TrEMBL record:
Top-rank EC class of the record's enzyme: lyase
Annotated EC: 4.2.1.59
InterPro entries linked: FabA_FabZ, HotDog_dom_sf
GO molecular function terms listed in the Swiss-Prot or TrEMBL record: (3R)-hydroxyacyl-[acyl-carrier-protein] dehydratase activity
Name of the protein: 3-hydroxyacyl-ACP dehydratase FabZ
Source organism (scientific name): Clostridium aminobutyricum
Record family assignment: Belongs to the thioester dehydratase family. FabZ subfamily.
Keyword Lyase in annotation: yes
C-alpha cells in the first residue's frame, strides 16, 4: 500500500461520506494509479437503491473513478493543493454490478492534458473481484 485513508485526505478535499477511496495500492507519478474502495454495506444509499437487491449506484462508480484520478493528478507537483472539479465523463460503460460488501479496484491513467488550462482527462477501469465492472474517461479541471 502506498497511501492509506489519512494520506489520501492530505491530497484530495473529499471527506466521509463522499470519500470513496480507501487506499492507493500503486502509483506511477504523472502516469497511473491503482486504488481500492470497500463498499460498506451499512451505507445509507442502500436503503433506497435498492432495498430488495442492493447495488452501488452508477454515479458512485463514476465518482470512484474520478477520485482515484484526482489523487493521481493532485500528486503531480504542478497541481498540488488545487481543487479538482469534475467537468466531464465520456465513453462510460457499466458492465457488472457492484454490491454491498464488495471491494473494487480502480485503475486510472492520464490520457490527455491541456496544461495551459489545467484540464486533465483520465481513462479509468473499475474491477470487482478481477471482473471489469465499469470503464470510461473522466475529465477534471484543477482550480
Amino acid at each position: 500500500m502506498i497511501m492509506n485513508k489519512d494520506d489520501i485526505k492530505k491530497v484530495i478535499p473529499h471527506r466521509d461520506p463522499m470519500l470513496l477511496i480507501d487506499e492507493v495500492l500503486e502509483m506511477e507519478t504523472e502516469k497511473s494509479i491503482v486504488a481500492a474502495f470497500y463498499v460498506e454495506p451499512s451505507r445509507e444509499i442502500f436503503k433506497g437503491h435498492f432495498p430488495e437487491e442492493a447495488v452501488l449506484p452508477g454515479v458512485y462508480t463514476v465518482e470512484i473513478m474520478a477520485q482515484a484520478s484526482d489523487i493521481l493528478i493532485l500528486s503531480c507537483e504542478r497541481y498540488a493543493n488545487k481543487i479538482p472539479l469534475f467537468i466531464g465523463i465520456d465513453k462510460v460503460k457499466f458492465l457488472s454490478k457492484i454490491k454491498p460488501g464488495d471491494t473494487v479496484e480502480v485503475h486510472s491513467e492520464i490520457s490527455f492534458e491541456k496544461a495551459e488550462k489545467a484540464i486533465v482527462t483520465c481513462s479509468a477501469k473499475v474491477y470487482n473481484d478481477g471482473v471489469l465492472a465499469c470503464q470510461g474517461d473522466v475529465t477534471l479541471a484543477m482550480r
